[in-house]
Amino acid sequence: MSKHFRIVIFALTALLLASCASKKEATANKATMTWQYEIEPTTGQATQGSILVKVWSYSGSKGVARTLAGKNAVHGVLFKGVAALNEQNARVPQQKPIVTDVNAEETHKEFLNEFFKDDGKYMKYVNFINNGIPAPGDIIKVGPRYKVGVRVSVAKDALRKEMEAAGIIKSLGAGF
Q: For a Cys staple, 163 with which of 39, 57, 100, 168, CB 3.0–4.6 Å?
């Protein structure tokens, strides 16, 4: 095999791999814009100012759904809140959404698009439990898509301060 032929094969392989990675990123970005997920409380030890949640993300790809878990967890804490959990030996209080203005996502669209882009600022507020690896039974085939559950810790107090600094919410000390 000639040297030039090997170089061409290597270049085509690299191009194909880059194309696949780009498609996965585009799929993740597209899925982010529709915010299709469920968020629920989970038990465990969270650091001060953080909340533990399980996020169920939907995608045609198991890998993309796992990638979306961090974004979805932060979005859920910001805009949906988290229900209370009352089980036999566990009690997790309800967490109201940090952002209560129903128009905030549209009003602050430019900031939020930048905040939630891949490797965006949202990553500062996310810590994946078990390195983001779903537990057995947390990858469910639902029609043509996957529903993937990932446990995540979200630094809600720091996230609140970020939203205050960005002018999306008023500080807790601000008057009515």
A: 168
